[in-house]
Amino acid sequence: MKFLHFATSFVALSSSVSSSILPPSSKALAVREPEAKSETYDQFFDASPLERRRGGGGRSSGSSGSSSGGSRGSSSSSSSTRGDSNAGGRTSTGSGPTPRFGGGRFYGGGAVVPYSAGSRSPAGIVPFILLGGALLVFPGLWLYGAYIYDYPRQITYFNESANANETNAVQCWCSRFLVCSCDENDEDDYVQDLIGDGNWRNLDKSLITVTDVNGTRTVLINGTLPNGTTASGGEDGEGAAANFKPVEYTVYALMAAVLTSAVWFI
After folding, report:
1. Which of 163, 178, 213, 245 has minimal Cβ neighbours within 10 Å of its Cβ?
2. pTM value > 0.85
3. Which keywords describe this protein according to UniProt (predicted)?
4. What is the CA angle 119-120-126, rounded to 5?
């Protein structure tokens, strides 16, 4: 009787844990389409006008030590993914939104090849995680929290309202359990495409904003991509490792531990 009562409780517990922890899967993206604004993210932003820097835009000085966006992409390994995978990587023809910045070379966050949110970026940036009220600095539907990629260098652009060049810190945010495109990018054509023509009405507010973060004026970029997004130029195939989700492992490991404990009660 004790074991029956325990087993019943365990089934209820495992069902509750699974429904509360596991994020919903995105459906497969059947048609390749340009990366576009997301209506879901339109409510994220409340920013001041931005303009490209006079003379073509770009990063502040000190960028000689960084690698170009192209070299970052070439070092990324191929990855086979399902439509609901957040692994990113490359497939033969690519899937999901295509890059539309810097002449179609870069995703919105600056990366050449997307990857799983929370991983180290191709340029080596290690993110930190924000949960709960800390997300209010960048309002939006960060349902499971966000990974924050704090770029080492600042960005310079022309602010029309101040009639002067401004240099600000940069952060790129990616929603947990989704695909990420955040990577520091000092390519002038990427920065110019990102900031646009300086007209606030034409700024892509689903992608970029400027706000104060801990007293520091900061450019915030939304680098989130839908699950199933991959860059072209890789190889297709089936691989369970690309679709493996750590959160699922945590749940199943917990269930296995409880089952093992139950044996000793028999």
Report:
1. 163
2. no
3. Membrane, Signal, Transmembrane, Transmembrane helix
4. 110
Give the closest residue to 45 by CA, choosing from 205, 218, 221, 214. Answer: 205
Assess contact for 178 and 247: CB atoms under 8 A.
no
Residues facing 150 on adjacent strands: 171
Question: What does the chain come to in residues?
Answer: 266
- Whole-angstrom distance, CA of residue 255 vs CA of residue 98: 39
Q: Would you list the DSSP string of 124-165?
A: -PPPEEE-GGGGGGS-S--BTBEEEEE-SS-EEEEETTTTEE
Q: What is the pLDDT of residue 182?
A: 97
Helices (H), the chain: 2-21, 69-74, 188-195, 240-243, 246-263
pLDDT tens, 38-67?
433 333 333 343 433 444 444 443 433 443
Paired residues of 155 in beta bridges? 59, 168
156 close to 150: Cβ distance less than 8 angstroms: no
CA atoms within 13 A on the CB side of 170: 29
For 85-107, write each residue's pLDDT tens digit: 878 899 988 898 999 999 999 99
Supply the mean pLDDT for the chain.
Answer: 68
Residue 38 token pair: 């997301």
